[in-house]
Specification:
5% strand, mainly alpha, two-stranded antiparallel sheet
């Protein structure tokens, strides 16, 4: 298992599926930085916990939208 990460892992185009999804089995981080660090982080879809984290993110966004929609109906 690789524990010393560098920017070459994230910048290697072979680790990006369709240029959008980061997939690197040697990188155990769940949220590695994006190719351009100022854009934030991405999900490493090779990590077994990535699908779980992605689903939590989607449920959180949908939950916030649901609450906001119901709050606007009280007016």
């Amino acid at each position: 298992m690789k524990t010393n990460y560098n920017t070459e892992d994230v910048n290697n185009r072979h680790h990006w599926v369709l240029g959008l999804f980061y997939f690197n089995k040697d990188d155990q981080r769940l949220f590695p930085p994006k190719r351009f660090k100022y854009l934030g982080w991405t999900i490493n879809f090779a990590n077994p916990y990535s699908i779980f984290a992605y689903l939590i993110l989607i449920v959180a966004v949908l939950g916030i939208l649901y609450v906001l929609r119901n709050l606007s109906s009280f007016n």
